[in-house]
């Protein structure tokens, strides 16, 4: 390769560098930025920590069908089902999830559980600050994931309304 072509290559590379130097700087000011994400910018379809949803009457959408657990390739969803009663109705179907845990030590955020759910009970939220030095804190319980009961008519306190 000739000296001239080398110089031409270097000049081309430097022109790109110099051009970028005068572009406006775009950085995310996380964690010192404003808003609930503290400056982090998340795309709409970002798969963060899971959220367990309620229906329009405030009842839990999860009907304990176990399809999400069956679809999970990491085997990190643990569910215990219980029957609804006339006195204590938690979901609109026969059963509800008395226990619903996701082990984030194992979850790979593939979204299969969300796709498998027939009632749209489980979705991905935008929670991303999950790192921990203590692995035991990475097992999220239903109480950590369930959307807050905002006093809708059919909602019955399930003991899981204190967190979200
Ligand atoms: S996102 Fe994937 S790995 Fe995580 S709980 Fe759902 S199915 Fe399992
Ligand atoms: S989250 Fe959905 S798929 Fe999983 S047990 Fe509940 S209703 Fe079934």
Could you give a quick summary of the protein structure above?
With 164 residues, this protein is α+β, with helices and mostly antiparallel strands.
Tell me what the structure shows.
Helix content is 20%, strand content 15%. The chain is of the alpha+beta class and 164 residues long. It has 2 domains: 41 residues, no CATH class; 96 residues, 2-Layer Sandwich (Alpha-Beta Plaits), CATH 3.30.70.3270. Strands 2-3-5 form a 3-stranded antiparallel sheet. The chain has a two-stranded antiparallel sheet with strand order 1-4. The radius of gyration is 24 Å and the shape is elongated. The N and C termini lie far apart (65 Å). One iron/sulfur cluster (SF4) binds next to helix 2.
Quick tags:
4 helices, single chain, three-stranded antiparallel β-sheet, binds iron/sulfur cluster, two-stranded antiparallel sheet
Estimated radius of gyration:
24 Å
**Basic shape:** elongated
Task: Please give the CATH class of the largest domain.
Answer: Alpha Beta
Q: What strand line-up does the widest sheet have?
A: 2-3-5
Quote the average pLDDT.
90
Cα distance, first to last residue? Answer: 65 Å
Topology:
Blueprint: H1 3-21, E1 50-52, H2 67-71, E2 77-83, E3 95-103, H3 112-116, E4 122-124, E5 139-140, H4 142-145
Antiparallel strand pairs: 1-4, 2-3, 3-5
The structure holds iron/sulfur cluster (2 copies).
């Amino acid at each position: 390769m000739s000296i001239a072509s080398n110089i031409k290559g270097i000049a081309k590379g430097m022109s790109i560098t110099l051009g970028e130097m005068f572009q406006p700087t775009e950085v995310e000011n996380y964690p010192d930025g404003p808003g609930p994400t503290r400056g982090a910018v998340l795309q709409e379809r970002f798969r963060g920590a899971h959220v367990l949803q309620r229906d329009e009457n405030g009842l839990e959408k999860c009907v304990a069908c176990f399809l999400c657990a069956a679809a999970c390739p990491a085997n990190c969803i643990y569910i215990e089902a219980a029957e609804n009663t006339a006195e204590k109705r938690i979901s609109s179907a026969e059963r509800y999830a008395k226990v619903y845990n996701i082990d984030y030590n194992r979850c790979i955020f593939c979204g299969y559980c969300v796709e498998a759910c027939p009632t749209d009970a489980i979705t991905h939220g935008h929670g991303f600050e999950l790192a921990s030095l203590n692995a035991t804190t990475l097992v999220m319980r239903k109480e950590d994931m369930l959307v807050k009961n905002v006093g809708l008519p059919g909602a019955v306190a399930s003991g899981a309304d204190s967190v979200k």
